[in-house]
Amino acid sequence: MPALGVDFSVFPEKGGLQRDYVPFHDHRMPGASDEQLLQNSVTMESLAGHQGDKLSVEVRVTNDQTGHHIPTDAPIRQMILVINAFDAVGNRLELVEGPALPAWTGDYAGNPGKAFAKVLRDEWTGEIPTAAYWRPVTIVEDTRLPALATDVTQYTFNLPEAKVAKVEVRLIFRRAFYELAKLKGWDDPDILMEEATIHVEQSR
Length: 204
Known about the structure:
Layout: H1 35-39, E1 43-51, E2 54-62, E3 78-87, E4 95-97, E5 113-116, E6 118-122, E7 137-142, E8 150-158, E9 165-174, H2 178-184, E10 191-200
Antiparallel strand pairs: 1-2, 2-8, 3-5, 3-9, 4-8, 6-7, 9-10
């Protein structure tokens, strides 16, 4: 916790006393409300290149800044890796190998990428994923990224040999499952944690 440039914990005009014998440290815990904190949580590296008539993409996400699993706290939060690849005129390239995002990611479902979350099933209703973690639940999967771990995913797209391409990689933090947010009328925007754009030149 960083030291603060103050020597009181309560404003003096409110009765606070100065304490100058040790520094005060910042004990605020903004969590997911702090975009800068989220954007400094992980490191992302992306590579792309030709392999014959295919475009190969590799993305590495390392949880090197948090000291705990990410995302954490309520198991309705997700970290969503979204990959988009285009040819020279903007046509979306076909994914022929690699993971795609699950249905519960809503507007990202089916896109190349990976979701990081603790997904629960409600044992009373069978709902997957459920936000009611205080009820009897079973962990369906836990793809959160542990502290200091690196997740590596690879994607292959159809791309005629020698053609140029553009790859857009985004890592997004979402506070609640898509359908739950729609049901509740929550309009909290997604937070862009990391992004990269890779231009793949013509092979020779």
